[in-house]
UniProtKB/TrEMBL annotation:
Gene Ontology MF annotations: cholesterol binding; cholesterol transfer activity
PROSITE patterns in the cross-refs: START
Keyword vocabulary terms for this entry: Lipid transport, Lipid-binding, Transport
GO-annotated biological processes: cholesterol import
Protein function: May be involved in the intracellular transport of sterols or other lipids. May bind cholesterol or other sterols.
Name of the protein this chain belongs to: STAR5 protein
Lineage: superkingdom: Eukaryota
Domain START: 1-156
The keyword Transferase is annotated on this UniProt entry: no
């Protein structure tokens, strides 16, 4: 979990190689080739008219959290094992998509939540296997490379 957080932090700090691919008035999407796997990294950025704490409550990875209420790509989120107050092993399920052509997925990740001195909040995760969470029938087991969400205070 800590290694995933460190890697995601490095991606955030490294401005090089990102190419814009789509932008609306609220969100800008960028991509760049990954150095971890044969594919691309994607980054979405936007500013929300809300306090960082309120935004964090909407995105933080906790059982019973708000993300399953607003994010239709997340069907369920459960904690398999709490390692500490900030690190846990979690299972996330997604619904089928594209008129059920894409099967429901499940992801088992080790997740860390951090808060930095400047008020930035981070959740980072990466794939893990856990004996209490074997692959479930009717789900395709997904694999997450290190990934994460930042909630960064903006002056004003």
């Amino acid at each position: 979990a800590e290694a995933a957080a460190d890697l995601v932090w490095l991606y955030r700090r490294d401005p090089g190689g990102w190419r814009g691919c789509r932008s609306t008035g609220e969100v800008a999407m960028s991509w760049r080739p990954s150095t971890e796997f044969s594919g691309n990294l994607y980054k979405g950025e936007g500013i929300l008219p809300a306090s960082p704490r309120h935004v964090w409550e909407c995105i933080k990875p906790v059982a019973g959290g708000l993300r399953t209420k607003w994010d239709h790509t997340v069907k369920d989120f459960e904690v398999i094992e709490a390692i500490s107050d900030t690190i846990s092993v979690c299972r996330t399920t997604t619904p089928s998509a594209f008129m059920k052509i894409i099967s429901p997925r499940e992801f088992v990740d080790v997740v860390v939540m951090k808060e930095y001195e400047d008020g930035t909040m981070l959740s980072a995760a990466t794939n893990v296997e856990h004996p209490l969470c074997p692959p479930q029938p009717n789900f395709v087991r997904g694999f997450n490379y290190p990934c994460g969400c930042f909630c960064i205070p903006v002056p004003g």
